[in-house]
TrEMBL record:
InterPro entries in UniProt: Rossmann-like_a/b/a_fold, Universal_stress_UspA, UspA
One Pfam family hit: Usp
CDD domains reported in the protein's UniProt record: USP-like
Gene3D superfamilies given in the database record: HUPs
Residues spanning the membrane: none
Superkingdom of origin organism: Archaea
Positions of the UspA domain: 1-139
Sequence similarity: Belongs to the universal stress protein A family.
Region (Disordered): 139-158
Protein name as it appears in the record: Universal stress protein
Amino acid sequence: MYDRILVPTDGSAGMGGVVRHAVELAAFHDAEIHGLYVVETGRYSTLPVKTGWENLTEMLREEGETALDDLRERTGDVAVETVTRDGVPSTAIVEYALDADCDAIVMGTHGRGGIDRLLLGSVAERVVRASPVPVTTVPVSDHEMTAPTDETEARAPE
């Protein structure tokens, strides 16, 4: 059913759960993962930057490479292709999904609410609304979530 699964990353610490979900889905379908990091240069274009715009862009690209390296390390035996693009994240994610003929998108959502959501918006929500392919959102947190081990089993609330 799925041959190519897109996993956009912002480099958040909580992306481990998102990548694990995508890897399980890819392994089940014998699919490859496409990792995407979007350099949102437009957000910073009006800031006064003493060291120069080129240095800021280079720093953002380095952050992207670090995020994509982390994604590659977490994919294990699943084939992965990574790319960095410039632009508005939600638009770039949907465009890449179309360009690379992806069958699904697995992405994190920070679950912001209230004023943060009003001011920052939700990339995941915009992707869900605009994507022509299925989108699975996985909650991320500020710290890495760990899967239960044999010693500690996951329990449903009683």
